[in-house]
Amino acid sequence: MKDNIKKTLKYLASAALAVLLLWVSFREVEWAEFWEQLKSCRWEFILLSMAAGSFAFWLRAVRWRQLLLPIDDSITRTTTFNGINIGNISNFLFPRIGEFIRCGVITRRSAPVDPSRPDHRKATYDKVLGTVVLERGWELLVMLLMLAIVVFGGFNRFGGFFVEQIWTPMASRLDFSIWWIVAVLVLAGSAGLFALWRYRSSNAFCSKVWGIFRGLVQGFSSCLRMERKWLFFAYTAFIWVMYWLMAASTMWAAPFLEGLDLIDALFLSLVGGLGFAVPVPGGIGAFHFIISLALSAVYGIPMEMGIIYATLSHTSQAITQILFGLGSYAYESLHR
């Protein structure tokens, strides 16, 4: 009962944050002008953006399968594709829940270790979760690396946005060095792991948590046993090309952004990724706010105009995710 209350409160807080950010983003919008600008958009480029997003889902699925093959080589591309799609649509209900749900899709489709024990799967939930942690961690690392290259390579162009709009407000709210926070977290994590290892045989709770931790490590280490590792990096590169094309296509669709180039599209794609990192359902509100803020701070485009680009980008991809998510859910239900 208490867990259900906590989950409900977390969801309400997340939804409230999304509503607040939407209100902040849209509060100065002149709706007559908003609809006129939407009518003037080139919708063929929006369709191109949606096609690029769809192909990115497939590339993420085959990349994830590369991590899963050392655990269970019977996992198919269709299964990982469905897992990605169902996870995406689940994130609209509760932020980050999709990462756990897609693990369940894989576990249910995994082959049994022993035919006489069909419930004992090769790809156990904790192992699959380890591959998800690895995949999302790698995705975050690549995004931050690209962001650093773009910002420092064109600091005069983009640096002011991150310094004035992100770093300075964040630093002003910290009363002490952020490195103290990192040190405390590292020490607490190390102490927790030592306690789990020390009492793994004598305490039922520690034994259970230690088993889950071992499964995560095994899933994480699947990268080391992955065949043709170069494919993993090639898929990552193509995924980011698709993200780049999504942002560029939406930019080409908006007549008021004609002066921007492909470097600007990459910048907007990376900034949008930061918006999706905020714990709100489907990035709603956070994506709109940070994109319109970036267009205003870097290019001097009014917030009420930037929100048009953000709405085009987010809504087109949301529709794509919902359509593919429903299709994958129907497929998995019929082939249960």
Oligomer: single chain
Number of strands: 2
Spans where pLDDT lies below 50 across 5 or more residues: none
Q: Describe the sheet with the most strands.
A: 2 strands, antiparallel
Q: How confident overall, as mean pLDDT?
A: 79
Distance between the amino and carboxyl termini: 30 Å
Structural class label: mainly alpha
Number of helices: 13
Strand proportion, as a percent range, falls in under 5%
Helix content: over 70%
Task: Order the strands across the largest sheet as they lie in space.
Answer: 1-2
Order of helices and strands: HHHHHEEHHHHHHHH
Identify the overall geometry: globular
Rg over CA atoms, rounded to whole Å, is: 22 Å
What does this structure look like?
- The chain is mainly alpha-helical and 336 residues long.
- 77% of the residues lie in helices and 2% in strands.
- The protein has a two-stranded antiparallel ribbon.
- Helix 1 (2-26) packs parallel to helix 12.
- The protein is globular, with a radius of gyration of 22 Å.
Give a short summary of the structure.
The chain is mainly alpha-helical and 336 residues long. The chain contains 13 helices and 2 strands; from the N terminus they run αααααββαααααααα.
